[in-house]
Amino acid sequence: MRKNLKAKALVYPQPVFIIATYNEDGSTDAMNAAWGCVADINKVAIYMAKNHKTYENICNTQAFTVSMATSKYVKQADYVGVVSANDELHKFDNTGWHSIKSECINAPIIEELPLTLECKFESFDEESELLIGEVVNVSVDESILDENGKVDVYKLDPITYDTVNHTYITLGKKVGNAFKDGIVFKKCLTTKIEIVNDNSDIV
Fold first, then answer.
1. How far apart are CA 17 and CA 14, in angstroms?
2. Are 12 and 160 in contact (CB under 8 A)?
3. Please, are residues 116 and 30 in contact by the beta-carbon 8 Å criterion?
């Protein structure tokens, strides 16, 4: 039996993005953005209200970074989401995090968060408040790479946001292989077609 939960955008897993920008005085600001996703192979989309200090910073610098929040820094990630830089300009300092300047854009990279997308501002829709950023580089700490130089999601250990229960959850175990496991149904379809063709002359 199924149950209707009304109109809610329940999507799992929901990434937890930490957006970092520079304030007008050159200090680092960070915010927790729950409503974000991939927009293209080299673009990210984030819904961001214009009253955020981060939005103002992006307008000034035309750049921002997007890092995956990790289980090691859940408290810091939540803190930069519940405290506004409009009320506490230097809230980043309270997290104990450290930042370095990106080599590609005018935005900070949070050193403690090992996977960071360096983005140039592309567009902002005034009505929907949808921000689009072009990813110009991905900066990763070598500690999360496997023996082939690829990102190991288990070493990264990102957290996801449960919008129903307001909790943070880590990813689970591997259950399959993309672009591979589903081929079994393609083979089954091919087999069925071959059987039909073989019996086409049967009267």
1. 9
2. yes
3. no
